[in-house]
Backbone:
């Protein structure tokens, strides 16, 4: 075991626990727990959004994909960034004005019926748990590679830490862990990028021309088409990336942590700058790993390329930089899973328990107890699922989370804000069609079925040929919401829509 | 004391949402928002999807543009520039909307 890396891991754990200790003193009400009482500034929330969003998949996954397949890996960087324009232009401000603690709050602001809130909460839980299992399984494998700690213990360590942050420190602890991680990640990535760039004499021209002969792919390393060979699947993936972000519950709840829509807007803009700069730097990580670590060494450490960035750090800066980058990767995982626990727990406690079971009559004290138990429940469930999923290739769970977010959440959010005629039936059918079609298409697709043994989870020909269902399931989600509305006998409630228009666009409410 | 007075005043003023929606200020706000957000959203989605569609079905973006960069990379970097530019434009334009919202709040007695 690398002693230096281990010490830095411990330092990260200590730092986050100190944050949680101070946050716990400030976590007394449900508003503190779910939204840090709306106390974050635009800058703080911008950093926290970046910290919530830039997962280990972005940091390690994209670096590895660029290193192994060149341009195609960069598609993720572009999609993950441009997605923030959808958030900024369409979703962030109305969401902040209409919602309170959860995404379902926003939909329920217009359709205050149990079934609408229930289905919206179900989508939030589905997306957050799937996404979390993917993160936990990745984390287990990663910590095993970095520190040599057994998979089971790795998952347990991450699982226990995320539970402590959320249960004791709620949104305040989660936000500050995310802010800390975002700063560390930017520093680590920047250092590596500068060193890589210096090796190419700070010349973009030299870097690109040398990369033509630096990998086994030759000149085609710099051309699209090494990873994505099915055009339709690639476009489908891009659709889910760019439209899914605006429907990811753990990102959406971040907008409730600021005081008003103007601050929410500022925080998206700050986040977009930070995330954009980070994704530009993924080129240096990927190119650097391809040139200085080498294709064979990257795949020898991990076939999917996830070790490219830490190995690059080792080559460039020796044990210290390797330890630092590994610790940053660890912090990255912790920050993202904490956000996921909180989003799933708030859907359980706030939407299901407080609103549906207790019909809004639970006291403040009961609600916060429920929120803490829900966090523990969500964490335990995810840990158990992650332990069972160890041997599975869980990459498809991320694709699934983005597809459900884009197909089930985004159409409902858009129609709730913009469509006068939209009604309860449309909201419920839209959400269910989006959710079920994404699930069915992924289960019938090549992520689960492969004709070769070990190619996927089950052996056989996939019924649906695309790995990313977005291109089918997103239109189906919109269609479900539209047809549900058109064919129901309910008339448009003009008065309610007037209320939504005023609230969403001005923040005024009675 | 002051805080209490403001709160009392708020409780007295019950908003009539339908009346507010029909007010010229709000109608202007919605018109200007629509004129800005709709075309810009269509633009960035079109700009974004042009890259994967072109690279998926054609290879002409693989021609070198300059500095050993192919057009595909130039287009990819342009997506970043586009995103940041649209962020700045949104920030600027939304300040105009904020003024209209403030006007409306005054009209509503808030």
Residues:
């Amino acid at each position: 075991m690398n002693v230096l890396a281990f010490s830095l891991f411990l330092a990260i754990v200590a730092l986050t626990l100190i944050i949680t200790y101070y946050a716990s003193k400030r976590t007394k009400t449900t508003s503190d727990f779910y939204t840090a009482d709306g106390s974050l500034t635009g800058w703080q929330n911008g950093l926290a959004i970046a910290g919530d969003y830039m997962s280990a998949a972005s940091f390690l996954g994209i670096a590895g994909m660029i290193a192994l397949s060149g341009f195609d890996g960069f598609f993720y960087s572009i999609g993950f960034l441009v997605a923030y324009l959808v958030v900024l232009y369409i979703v962030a401000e109305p969401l902040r004005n209409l919602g309170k603690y959860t995404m379902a709050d926003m939909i329920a602001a217009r359709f205050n019926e149990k079934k609408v809130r229930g289905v919206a909460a179900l989508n939030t839980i589905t997306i957050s748990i799937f996404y979390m299992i993917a993160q936990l399984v990745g984390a287990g494998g990663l910590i095993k590679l970095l520190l040599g700690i057994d998979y089971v213990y790795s998952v347990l360590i991450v699982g226990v830490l995320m539970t402590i942050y959320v249960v004791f420190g709620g949104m305040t602890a989660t936000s500050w862990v995310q802010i800390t991680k975002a700063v560390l990640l930017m520093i680590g990535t920047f250092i590596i990028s500068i060193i890589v760039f210096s090796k190419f004499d700070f010349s973009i021209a030299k870097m690109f021309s040398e990369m033509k002969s630096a990998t086994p792919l030759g000149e085609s390393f710099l051309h699209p088409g090494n990873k994505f060979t099915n055009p339709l699947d690639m476009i489908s993936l891009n659709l889910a990336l760019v439209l899914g972000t605006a429907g990811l519950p753990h990102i959406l709840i971040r907008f409730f942590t600021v005081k008003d829509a103007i601050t929410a807007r500022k925080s998206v803009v700050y986040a977009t700058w930070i995330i954009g700069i980070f994704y530009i730097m993924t080129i240096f990580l990927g190119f650097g790993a391809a040139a200085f670590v080498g294709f064979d060494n990257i795949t020898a450490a991990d076939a999917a390329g996830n070790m490219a960035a830490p190995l690059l750090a080792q080559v460039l800066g020796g044990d210290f930089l390797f330890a630092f980058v590994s610790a940053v990767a660890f912090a990255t995982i912790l920050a993202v899973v904490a956000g996921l626990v909180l989003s799933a727990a708030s859907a359980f406690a706030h939407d299901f328990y407080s609103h549906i079971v207790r019909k809004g009559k639970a006291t403040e004290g009961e609600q916060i107890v429920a929120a803490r138990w829900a966090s523990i429940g969500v964490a335990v469930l995810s840990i158990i699922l992650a332990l069972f999923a160890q041997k599975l290739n869980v990459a498809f769970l991320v694709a699934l989370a983005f597809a459900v977010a884009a197909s089930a959440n985004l159409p409902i959010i858009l129609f709730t804000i913009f469509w006068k005629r939209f009604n309860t039936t449309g909201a419920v059918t839209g959400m269910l069609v989006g959710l079920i079609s994404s699930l069915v298409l992924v289960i019938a697709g090549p992520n689960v079925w492969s004709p070769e043994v070990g190619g996927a989870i089950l052996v056989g020909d996939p019924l649906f040929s695309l790995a990313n269902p977005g291109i089918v399931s997103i239109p189906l989600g919109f269609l479900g919401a539209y047809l549900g509305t058109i064919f129901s006998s309910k008339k448009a409630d003009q008065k309610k829509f007037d209320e939504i228009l005023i609230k969403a666009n001005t923040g005024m409410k009675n | 004391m002051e805080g209490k007075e403001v709160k009392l005043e708020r409780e007295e003023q019950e908003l009539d949402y339908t009346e507010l929606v029909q007010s010229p200020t709000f109608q202007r706000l919605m018109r200007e928002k629509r004129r800005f957000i709709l075309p810009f959203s269509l633009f960035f989605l079109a700009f974004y999807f042009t890259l994967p569609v072109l690279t998926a079905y054609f290879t002409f973006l693989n021609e070198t543009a300059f500095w050993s960069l192919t057009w595909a990379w130039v287009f990819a970097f342009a997506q970043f520039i586009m995103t940041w530019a649209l962020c700045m434009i949104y920030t600027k334009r939304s300040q105009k909307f904020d003024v209209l919202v403030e006007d409306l709040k005054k009209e509503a007695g808030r």
